From TrEMBL:
Keywords: DNA-binding, Transcription, Transcription regulation
Source organism per UniProt: Actinoplanes sandaracinus
DNA-binding segment(s): 15-34
Gene3D superfamilies, A to Z: Tetracycline Repressor, domain 2
Keyword Metal-binding in annotation: no
Stated name of the protein: Helix-turn-helix domain-containing protein
């Protein structure tokens, strides 16, 4: 419920009364559980990350606690990206939520500013590590992957009837990763 409201309205348009009503609580009762509107937002984002990690681990056949662990059964950058895109294609509301909040949080005063900054650094570091030994500049490739994924998702969200996210990703990834991961 909260995820849907944030995806539709963004953080600034989110009404705590609407969230409380959707949960069957009063606003004071809800605030007792989450502390503040800012805390609610971070909890929603962290929950999304946990769900994504569980789904990725299942898709890739890796225990969730080993998904990003050094020395664990490793998957390639193309495999992880493909799994992410397949997951996102099945949850447009969540992708919309993420896109709206990520854009809103570019403002330093946004309550998710630090969350998204840390998340971006973590993603780029992880993707760079997966690209090590395959390209001369793993960090640059990681940035290109993120930009491509985010851009394709925006196109898909605007035109879901004409753009197949998975097909668009696989075509672009085929060119981006050509000859790099064997």
């Amino acid at each position: 419920m909260t995820t849907k409201l944030i995806a539709e309205r963004g953080f600034w348009g989110l009404s705590m009364q609407d969230v409380a009503d959707g949960c069957g609580l009063t606003v004071p009762g809800m605030l007792h559980h989450v502390g503040s509107k800012d805390s609610l937002l971070v909890a929603v984002l962290e929950h999304r990350d946990e769900q994504d990690a569980t789904s990725l681990a299942e898709q890739l056949g890796v225990p969730v606690h080993q998904l990003w662990t050094e020395g664990a059964p490793r998957v390639t950058l193309p495999q992880i990206c493909s799994a992410l895109v397949r997951r996102n294609a099945g949850q447009p509301e969540i992708v919309r939520l993420f896109a709206v909040l990520e854009a809103e949080s570019l403002a330093p005063g946004h309550p998710a500013h630090d969350y998204f900054r840390a998340r971006q650094r973590r993603i780029l570091t992880t993707m760079s590590a997966l690209a090590e030994g395959h390209v001369p500049d793993p960090r640059a490739l990681a940035g290109q992957v993120v930009a491509l994924m985010d851009g394709l998702q925006i196109l898909w969200l605007r035109e879901p009837e004409t753009i197949d996210l998975i097909t668009a990703w696989e075509a672009a990834a085929g060119r981006l990763f050509a000859g790099l991961f064997r």
